[in-house]
Amino acid sequence: MAKKASDNLKYYHNPNGPTIGTVSRRVIEKDGLTFKDIDGTGEVTAVNDWRLSPAERAAAYVKTLTVQEKIAQLFISDWRMGAECPAPSADHKVIPDESGVLDDAEFNGKTIFGEQHLPGTTTLIKDWFNRHLILRANPTPSYMADWLNQLHAVAEECDHFVPVQVVSNSRNENGEVVFGMNDASGVFATWPGTMGIAAAIRGEDGDLAIIDKFADCIRREWSACGLRKGYMYMADCVSDPRWQRTFGTFGEDPVLIEKIFERLIPGIQGSPDGVTKDGVSMTVKHFPGGGARENGFDPHYAAGQWNVYATEGSLQKYHIPTFRPAVKYHAASIMPYYSKPAAAKSGPQTDCEGNPLRMDPYGFAYNKVFIDGILRGQMGFEGYINSDTGITHNMKWGVEALDVPERIGFAVTQSGVDLISGLFDNADGREAYERATNGYYDTHPVPEGFKKEDLVLTDASLDRAVTRTLTELFQQGMFENPYADPKTAAEVVANEADWNEASLVHRESVVLLKNQDRTLPLTSDKLSGSKIYAEAFAKTAEGGAAATKALREMLANYHLTDDPAQADYAILMVSPSSGAYFNATPGYLELDICEDKEVCNVGADGKPLAETHLETTLSGAKRIPEIAAAVRAHGGKVIANINFPLAWMVGNVEPYADALTAGFDTYPSATMDVIFGRFAPVGRLPITLPRGDEVLAVNADGICASPNDVPGYDKDQYMADALKDENGKAYAYRDAAGSYYELNFGLRY
User: Fold this and answer.
1) Whether pLDDT at 338 is above 90
2) What is the C-alpha separation between 134 and 128, in angstroms, rounded?
3) C-alpha pair distances (Å), 735 with each of 371, 570, 603, 659, 693
4) 311 and 278 in contact (C-beta within 8 Å)?
5) Rounded CA gap, 57 and 161, in Å?
6) What kind and span of H or E run contains 211?
């Protein structure tokens, strides 16, 4: 196929029916209607007949597809674009296909999820028959549409046509690009981080119209580009503030999270009854909630493999409710978390019917009690289960004794996973299928604690899984017409109204935490004849210097000075960063805004050690008191803004600021609008800020002073009286004005 698919599309319009879009697939004319020959029969079969329901068509098609074609549908993994986007590694050389759009070079590489030896794109689609890809690159809308169109056109050349379902993590929030979270930002209309969206909603007294606009923007932009599935959003309730993924959540309030998802899911998918032909499928994550971390350890590494529910009833009170909208509003899929429940460290928990909960020590994607029992059996979820990335290789918690084919069989057959994220394990999937009948376990032992019938891939489980993912594609109308117009894609994403709406929410997300002596706003009368000292701080000195340069350029119209001692006002932009997303730190994730702070190491058992190391979350943090002293020496004022991807401890910044604002991956320009009085602050905290090390201290037994499984706003009731002040509060930070930086706090001016 030498020509680009986008330039060779043919459309057939059915009266009162779907438009058929194709590049090379045969169409069938019957009774004045047009059908696509999906199954290659040349007849209007149940598969090809768009007048039947998606469920009926999927059930028919799963009987037509070969075993090998079906096994390929079980796996989803990262995929690369062509020459218009950066290569996946420095040594990878793109070999364009005949259209110039796809990369047909082989790829050998290794990630934290495992090692991959992959063919070119055309071979993957035509010979391997894989149809589920993860897009992490950040292309222009028009190139994204071209690339997706080309994938579908290649798929049309197979005997059996199945469109290519490409999924992306969220793309409509601002922030540091993090692999597996927001792999791409800045191309689509860019809102603040999700915690910033929650801050804006709280500031508008719970007005969820913000979510309606956010969801509608996502649906229109993604659909216009042909991107029809998102790994989004996180319904997790944050209960341990040291969890690295806090920044991708909507905060710590399960009530608000549930309300957000009640609007978010139908808004993005297009209907309260499930995904529509102009909707985008949502994969809500990470059931049953990733917030209940043990002292913040992340399950991307071994120390974080447990979900600990130390507080009686915490699972049902704080964590399960946030997933109810995914069931009620028919989210296309739900993603279980990597971790596994820790029975020995947990207090009594119940299922959704009040029965004592059995906590089998398997990662949630392998956990029949949680997936088949609670999520499907009791909550009634009807969509498909999409595992988190890497469960059959590196994040195999609880099933280390199994080999890869057995993990595939155990996940799909035993617990009901329908799509496994990680690598294209087609060969291992075939091995899992063949072991059901080839006598493998006559000569190989069944791993202790497992049953043979749970470790193999059966026809019934394979057909069930593929039927569910095919149903989604039929619901979206992608079998009839998966194609997008590149020009329309660019026009929709460039819609100025969406960018303006996102910009407004950036301003609404700013939280005013402190405003001593009415320092803010810095109106023109206050600034008359005044000098401003401006500096930005980051985790590294280099990052801080680059941000300072940008900040000073932003303030170029004001009278700037390089000397704090000459300044009437200092504006300090503070952007800490802690830990590494995919690697264990030597100790607990540091939440203090600090420089060269000595903290304890942590052993493999998660308990503190006598050995120590130094942590820096903000280069130059020790200079903040010096700057403040120089400015204040002659009556000047200090205005600081802190960016909160995590619930920082602010004790090394707040005392030195006369005014303090909070942002959540908020545009600096939006923060400046609040500082200079161009927009009055309305945001309120979506999360409680811990007061200091004492409330996050971990004792010799590995037990935290504040419960890991309870959100910040409710922690006080479980904490020692010795930590509580005269108001009975222990956990939240209290500033010099007596304000507690807790959930829903925010000042006005």
Assistant:
1) yes
2) 16
3) 44, 20, 34, 11, 16
4) no
5) 13
6) helix 209-225
| Per-residue pLDDT reduced to its tens digit, 470-529 | 999 999 999 999 999 999 999 999 999 999 999 999 999 999 999 999 999 999 999 999
pLDDT digit string, tens, across residues 158-192: 999 999 999 999 999 997 644 344 455 679 999 99
Q: What is the pLDDT, as a whole number, of residue 109?
A: 74
Rounded to whole angstroms, how far apart are CA atoms 735 and 742?
Answer: 11
Whether 250 contacts 194, CB under 8 Å: yes
DSSP 140-180: -HHHHHHHHHHHHHHHHTSSS----EEEEE--SB-S---TT
Contacts of residue 369, Cβ cutoff 8 Å, sequence gap at least 6: 351, 357, 358, 359, 360
- Six token digits for residue 430: 């075939």
- Backbone φ and ψ for 589, nearest 5 degrees, come out as -60, 125
Which residue in 446, 390, 450 sits closest to 415, CA to CA?
450
Is the per-residue pLDDT at 306 higher than 70?
A: yes
Instruction: Bin 702: left if φ > 0, else alpha if -120 < ψ < 50, else beta.
Output: left
Spatial contact of 338 and 397, defined as CB atoms under 8 Å apart: yes
pLDDT number for residue 170 = 95
Q: What is the CA radius of gyration of the chain?
A: 27
pLDDT at 582: 59
The whole-model pTM stands at 0.96
Structure tokens at 448: 């202790």
CA gap 110, 114 in Å, rounded: 6
- Among 110-114, 157-161, 541-545, the range scoring the smallest mean pLDDT is 110-114
Q: What is the DSSP string of 607-632?
A: -EEEEEEEE-SSTTGGGHHHHHHHHH
For residue 59, the one-letter residue type is A
Rounded to 5°, the CA angle 186-189-194 comes to 85
List all residues 6 or more positions away from 396 whose beta carbon is below 8 Å from its beta carbon: 363, 402, 407
Per-residue model confidence (pLDDT) at position 182: 47
CB atoms within 10 A of CB 745: 20
- Give the DSSP letter string of 225-255: HT--EEE--B-PPP-STT-GGGGGS--S-HH
Give the span between the Cα atoms of 94 and 9, in whole angstroms.
Answer: 26
